[in-house]
Amino acid sequence: MQPYHSSSNDFRSDTFTTPTKEMLEAVQFSSIGDAVYNEDINTIQLEKTVADIFGKPAGLFCCSGTMSNQIGIRTLLNVQPPYSILCDYRAHIYTHEAAGLAMLSQAMVTPVIPKNGNYLTVEDIQKWVIKNDGDIHGAPTFVISLEQTLHGMVTPFDELIRIKKFCIENNLKLHCDGARIWNACVKQNIDPKKYGTIFDSISVCLSKSMGAPIGSVLLGSANFIKKANHFKKQVGGGIRQSGIISSMALVAIQPGWENKLQYSHDLAAEMNDYLVNELHVPLESPTETSFVFIDLQTAKINPDVLVKKALKYGCRVMGGRIAFHYQIDRSLLNNLKMALKETVEYSKKYPFDHAGPTQIYRSESTDIINGDIQTFKY
Ligand SMILES: Cc1ncc(COP(=O)(O)O)c(C=O)c1O
Ligand SMILES: C[C@@H](O)[C@H](N)C(=O)O
Predict the structure, then answer these.
(1) Residues of the chain whose pLDDT is less than 50?
(2) Looking at this predicted complex, what is its ipTM?
(3) Which segments within the chain are labelled E, that is strand?
(4) Does the beta carbon of 65 sit less than 6 angstroms from any atom of ligand 1?
């Protein structure tokens, strides 16, 4: 597969991967049925293929990971509110989905800081779960949502088994935000089907590390997917000829996908070693898959300086998170290393004290326009 090179220097996120020539060629032969009436063959094929890979009975194509997370959790909440969802304090469903849990699901959230600093354990959940014991002060926990991977970190499968056991014993539903669950499968060297035995619902993104231009597939039981489709329609997700999109996603998940993810993991590991062993830069969290999280606050690095130094060497970053994906040009790793070296040297001369929360993502873009570096709100 010969990817385009427009994202070859883009370390901002794996969401910037671009459709390959093979994907675009597939569009010419895509099915063109109306998917609202379940008449689009490529969309049906994609939903079934992803469901089979992860060992779930049914799948539902969604336009985005946010949509699949939000309608998935809404569907699991098949009881009367008040209720709540327990998740990691960094979870995307809580921090970056525009309060969908509050507005679409009318749910409270219990954001939990894991004691080990990396991933939630059953002990964390036991400590913060709100029991459905009739106490009218609380909003009982009905859904536990885990992110795999979270900031590139992998929750060990044995821990998932412990959490699942707790959920069964306490009548709790278990959702997975699997935006990068494919990366976890590669890292753990496990069959994706094993995740199907743990989670009631899984939001599997195709548009992140897998490189499809658009889309996710929500997985669950047949009845769950039937109801989720109702919520999908409600939020305007009933798009028509989605075969044009599904045909590209089918290319993205064709056999051998593990290799492109392993490539990104290898690049991340090389950058991790350079930052830790050469530049002695503190990291926010361990590098386990495709992300490296620089602890800008401790390193006293100004994110704007990092962004601009990277641009000087022809690379794009948006903060302390360095994202790797299969379209990154390996030769640019040295460019980014030089940019980081200069950034660290600059920061030693001019240490930057962060005020307020560190941002992983930025609601502004910095680029070289007409020869000079400009930052603008998008
Ligand atoms: C962990 C995680 N979950 C969900 C999403 C949402 O996906 P989307 O941007 O397609 O809505 C993202 C975004 O990339 C993400 O990083
Ligand atoms: C921006 C954020 O929503 C996206 N999920 C990313 O990881 O880049």
Answers:
(1) 1-4
(2) 0.98
(3) 58-62, 84-88, 108-112, 141-147, 173-178, 201-205, 216-220, 291-293, 321-323, 364-369, 372-377
(4) yes
